[in-house]
Amino acid sequence: MNLKAKFWGTLLLLCMTISCSKNAVSQDETKTEEEQQEENAPPETIQEFWLEHRQLVSRVYYDDSIAIYYDNDMPRSISWIAPYTKKVWSYVVQTYGDLHGNAKDRRLYGIFHKNKYGGGHPFFYDNPDHGYISGIDIGSSGNDAWVNAEGWNTDIIAHEIIHHIEFVSHGKSGSPSRKWWGDSKIAEIINYDIYMNIGMPEEAARIYNNDINKTENFPSEGTAWLKNWFWPIYSNHGKTEVLQRYFKLLSDHFPQNSSGTYTRDMSFGEFIHFWSGAAKVNLKNQAVIAFGWNDNWEREWKQAQSQFPNVGYTY
To answer: Is pTM beyond 0.85 here?
Structure first.
């Protein structure tokens, strides 16, 4: 072999070696990225260990914001749950601030059952009873359970997600207001607001029509929560913004410990005071219409004004 041929042969071999090395590095980088993605993926199955739940549920969908699981009786052909849950959760997180605290896994886990565990419950990142993850766990019964994206099926998903606003918004823990609105009159107006803001006005109208004339025996007999309290506040004082402001005011002003857990329930006077702050107007007259009034509530209201003077309305 002459010297020139030897030179070109060596150069060709060197180029091939460099090319192979680059490919090897690229493959290694791709493999590392895939391994990292798999490491951050939610588990393929979850063994329930809470309340009466003992199902092994399987993952049917996940992304960076949600992970959806079905039990063995849930038809895999039901595909609307994941995109709907993602839409509701995304709106709620965008609207109501930090719902994750210091949780490493910031997904909402949605667990769905057919023909068992009627109803639902939420679980929160700051609680060991579900393994320190955020989520909802819901069961429905009947041959048509979960088939259609309407009515109770969509309401219950939104309802359980709304509890995350109630209990962990702005990185806090607890619901000082629950003593008054129970489980949960606040959900009616927030559910309406969610539907209006995710492109489901027909479902919002259904919620309004179903709930506007409902009455309860708390805090007074015959209380029409939506008609005489939440709807006037929502429609006259900022809609979504007034709901946002209420939870933000609680997080900024209501007593909590060093870890951000609220230390007590609200008095009724405080409840009216903080809603007045959210509405930026004195709501005592509306409270009288909605709930009646008594001397004890008057004392609590005056005390709340003295203790929390900076919630944002004139009195």
So the answer is: yes
